[in-house]
Amino acid sequence: MQRKTLSLPKLERLTPTLESTMLKITEEVGELAQAIGKFRGLSGEETRMPDDDVVRAIVTELLDVAQTATSMMFVIEDLYGIDIEREVERHIEKLRRKGYL
């Protein structure tokens, strides 16, 4: 099984809640969708960016989504004492049961 491991920081000087973090995730996913649609010419606009720049813009937005999801994991750990590492292993086991791995 291949794995992609990201180590993203816990953001400081913020007091996120589950609700505020979910709103931020939604915003970031929208920006990712916009980047994919616009830069791939799916929005009806003519794209004038080199492919490397398009992919880099998409990755930038994807990392914003990942950072915000990571922030939500920190909120859940801090507020509810959930062990995210254990939950990741449970998630992987679920993927195995479903035949994705």
Automatic annotation (TrEMBL):
SUPFAM superfamilies with a match to the protein in the record: all-alpha NTP pyrophosphatases
Matches recorded under InterPro entries: AF0060_NTP-PPase_MazG-like, MazG-like_dom
Ranges of residues in domain NTP pyrophosphohydrolase MazG-like: 17-97
Origin: domain of life: Bacteria
Name this protein carries in UniProt: MazG-like family protein
Organism: Alicyclobacillus sendaiensis PA2
Upper classification of the organism: Bacteria, Bacillati, Bacillota, Bacilli, Bacillales
